Amino acid sequence: MSYFKKHIPLFVALLFHISGLIGILCTPYKVFFVNSTPVVLLTMFLLLSSTEKKVAQDYFIFFVISFIIGLTTEIIGVNTGLLFGDYQYGSVLGPKLFGVPLLIGLNWFIIVFCSGSVCSQGLNFLQKKFDVNVSSSVFKIGVVIGGAAIATCFDIILEPAAVKLQFWSWENGHIPLFNYICWFSISVILLSVKMYFSKLIAQPFSIALLSIQAVFFLVLNLFL
User: Fold this and answer.
1) CA distance readout (Å), 58 to 35, 65, 97
2) 69-74 — which CB contacts under 8 Å span 24+ positions?
3) Is 77 in contact with 138 (CB distance < 8 Å)?
4) Residue 168, SS3?
5) How far is CA 187 from the centre of its chain?
6) Per-domain residue ranges for the chain?
7) Using CB atoms within 10 A of its CB, is residue 34 exposed (0-12), middle (13-18) or buried (19+)?
8) Residue 171 DSSP symbol
9) Cα-atom radius of gyration of the chain, to the nearest Å?
10) How many CB atoms within 10 Å of residue 24?
11) Are 129 and 161 in contact (CB under 8 A)?
12) Residue 81 — left, alpha, or beta (φ > 0 → left; ψ -120 to 50 → alpha)?
């Protein structure tokens, strides 16, 4: 039973995303499944949070900072074009603040948090594999830069499918390189904050969640 409970978040994440793929690609209920995106995103956040109970204070603080920075940068982007490029959000992701769905702040947190976890776990593996020890400061820099690169790569995977699902749209249908530059830069800022909270260690579920979402959007890119 304890083994089952330990893997409930992974099971639920797989269930939601596999059901979503089937519903969007193989049934006449595509609109229903697409419009369920806010529920899925909120559920993934709750599952992720359930694996971080031991560091509730640091986790909550980083979540609030990520949410505010992510939402604020998107508001600037949508209303001025000074960040990311010229784009607008559709109605799929729910209630908006100054043209930006509130859930986008949550999405920034999930992607950056999980990307940092993937990079942290990867660097730990490489250190053990090659019997190399680096200083704490070098390790943190590696997580910040590497994690930001992973978050940016995730956005590259996400963008085409998100546009097809009408999460948002780009002027002239073109996704500018500037969007990815901004993604990397903002991710660096957020991951620098994350590394300040040293108790936020890489949890297996956060790594699995980013992988599941990446595969989900890759499949949609191929078959939508």
Assistant:
1) 32, 11, 26
2) 69/108, 69/186, 69/189, 69/190, 70/104, 70/105, 70/107, 70/108, 70/109, 70/112, 70/186, 70/190, 71/97, 71/100, 71/102, 71/104, 71/105, 71/108, 73/182, 73/186, 74/100, 74/104, 74/105, 74/108
3) no
4) strand
5) 10
6) 2-223
7) middle
8) G
9) 18
10) 23
11) no
12) left
Distance between CA atoms of 158 and 163, rounded to whole angstroms?
A: 9
Q: How many whole angstroms separate alpha carbon 179 and alpha carbon 181? A: 6
Q: Which two tokens stand for residue 42?
A: 């909120």
How many residues in the chain?
224
Three-state DSSP class for residue 99: coil
Each residue's pLDDT, cut to its tens digit, for the chain (224 residues) gives: 455 556 899 999 999 999 999 999 999 999 999 999 999 999 999 999 988 766 678 888 999 999 999 999 999 999 999 999 999 999 999 999 999 999 999 999 999 999 999 999 999 889 888 888 888 899 999 999 999 999 999 999 999 999 999 999 999 889 999 999 999 999 999 999 988 876 666 678 999 999 999 999 999 999 99
Distance CA 152, CA 217 (A): 14
Q: Does residue 84 contact residue 180 with C-beta atoms inside 8 Å?
A: no
User: What is the rounded CA–CA span in Å between residue 151 and residue 210?
Assistant: 9
